[in-house]
Amino acid sequence: MIEAINISKSFGENLVLKNVSVDFEKGKTNLIIGQSGSGKTVLMKCLVGLHEVDEGRVMFDDRNFSGMNFIERKSVRKEIGMLFQGGALFDSMTVEENVMFPLTMYTNQSMDEKRERVNFCLEWVNLENANQLFPAELSGGMVKRVAIARAIVNKPPILLADEPTGNLDSTTADEIMNLLKELNAEGQTIIMVTHNPEACKHTARTIQVKDGSCYVN
Q: Could you tell me which CATH number the domain at 2-216 has?
């Protein structure tokens, strides 16, 4: 289980999260919803240490992530795939190099093993011929699919997705949501930030962020 326990986060005088306690269930799709600026993305970034909490702690299966140093956190982060809102691909890397990046960081696989896994993931997101393209050559939907391939390439049990359908047309957004539903059906825990209430219709659990607090529906 992933838990945020009494966490608070401020930026200057702006208190974004106020003594928030919430847990995220394994094997479920957990949606974090709320209006723009409500703090939902800040909450997600606190879960993986992209923002350090001012108070409280984040726990991964009874491991105090907030109390770990950089090296200790690496062992936890390899269990987490991260899908950023804009894709966050490396502009100077090809699609293949982008997707391979977590394997290089977290595994000792040979180049052949890494390339085989990359090709499998690209085929799964319907981009099997995109290996040598650069991000500037991709559409918005293709960028999101590459980002999903990168997020799952090292088979992490947890996927964090920040506005995965943002700025996409409805058809492409549905394709991305279907990919995420497939991952969840295979047992992956998904924590997804969205401002779109429609995304909540068929999910098991929603967490609403409002005025710095969380409410579980």
A: 3.40.50.300
